Amino acid sequence: MPHAIRIHQHGGPEVLAWEEVEVGEPGPGQVRLRHTAVGLNFIDVYHRTGLYPIPLPFSPGSEGAGVVEAVGPGVTNLKPGDRVGYCTAGVGGYAEVRLAPADKLVPLPDWLDDQTAAAMLLQGMTARYLLRKTYPVRAGDTVLVHAAAGGVGLIACQWANALGATVIGTVGSAAKAELARAHGCHHVINYAQEDFAARTRELTGGRGVEVVYDGIGKDTFEKSLDCLKLRGFMVTFGNASGPVPPMPPALLGQKGGLFLTRPSLAHYTATRDELLETAADLFGVVRDGRVKINVHQTFALKDAAEAHRALEARKTTGSTVLLP
Fold first, then answer.
1. Which of 279, 282, 268 is nearest to 237 (CA)?
2. CA end-to-end span of the chain, whole Å?
3. Is the pLDDT of residue 314 over 90?
4. What DSSP designation does 147 have?
5. CATH dotted code for 3-120+269-323
6. Element spanning 114, H or E
7. What is the pLDDT of residues 120-164, one digit of tens each?
8. Where do the CATH 3.40.50.720 domains begin and end in the chain?
9. CA nearest neighbour of 179 among 40, 322, 316
10. Taking the complete model, does pTM exceed 0.85, yes or no?
């Protein structure tokens, strides 16, 4: 029987259990998928801890790549042997084999290997909706990207640079600063050594940036508002440091008539056409070299707890892949 990581109670990495599981035949609209690579993302931690509650027990993991083994009734766009990837198919990725909805799977181009696909789909599609849809970045804009050496950050910084923006990134160490500079950041702020809001104002001549992309949450939110220009755009899309505390809407007015949004990938891939459009845009910038994807860490899937510990300790950079 195949194995999967299962969670029976919320908690720390120790609740990730490696177990045998039974995977049946695919039902209507489903395929059975054998994973070749699984992506590690911070949302997996939110699911494990219960910050984003999912009924127990379950297998975490929202991103993966693999080969279709069987298709269920009504599936006409895929066949056994097809290579596919996903990042909007729901949890269940930490498994050797899973059932998945066919309409949430994206065919992988021949030039793209499975590990790179599993490393880039969720983070790359997130960067795409942030930069192209939530606040469409234009040439001449100045943008601030928190966690610039993280998975989304490295992709977003490269992509924003390619769009003609001036990119300011924040990081927590000198090594991460060098990585961010090598991936499109024009200016890097080490928040362990500098006040990032004051430094951002200095870099922009006191004006502020058009947009802040913040996946960190509690630790960076309020100061991020101080980085924005008049009528600037605050995009909070993650909670790596914890959820943002309640905030009176009047604060946005006091700080310059700011705009605030809390989007998710699901909001921008709600239809099959939107999903395929988002994937095609991402594949395009990777294939032509505007965005480079590097798998910086790999772990055996059965060692997912070790991977979670490294991720939460901020010991990882860029993309991490779990291998079945």
1. 268
2. 13
3. no
4. S
5. 3.90.180.10
6. helix 114-129
7. 999 999 999 999 999 999 999 999 999 999 989 999 999 999 999
8. 139-262
9. 316
10. yes
